[in-house]
Design brief:
1 helix; single chain
Length: 95
């Protein structure tokens, strides 16, 4: 082989080595990104599940509050009705 051909082949080999090295770096970065993305996704899923559980508690508490409010409203209406029936006017005064 001629010296010129040897030099060209060595240059081509160096360029292939550079391309291979770059490809490996990109692959490592993608693998790292994938792993980080999986971890973030798992954390997000746990956060969402926690929020769903909290939302269930909030819905139950809201239902209880509505029930208590309805009960209080009914008691107040009963009290008003009862008070109106027992109001007696005597000499311009309410007894």
């Amino acid at each position: 082989m001629s010296d010129e051909l040897t030099i060209v082949l060595e240059d081509v080999q160096e360029k292939f080595d550079t391309v291979i090295e770059s490809f490996n770096m990109v692959r490592e970065n993608l693998d790292q990104f994938r792993d980080e993305n999986k971890q973030e996704h798992a954390e997000l899923r746990r956060d969402i599940q926690g929020l769903q559980a909290d939302m269930g508690v909030v819905k139950k508490d809201l239902g209880d509050l509505k029930s208590e409010t309805t009960s209080i409203r009914q008691d107040l209406n009963d009290h008003r009705t009862n008070t109106e029936f027992h109001t007696v006017k005597s000499k311009g005064h309410v007894v």
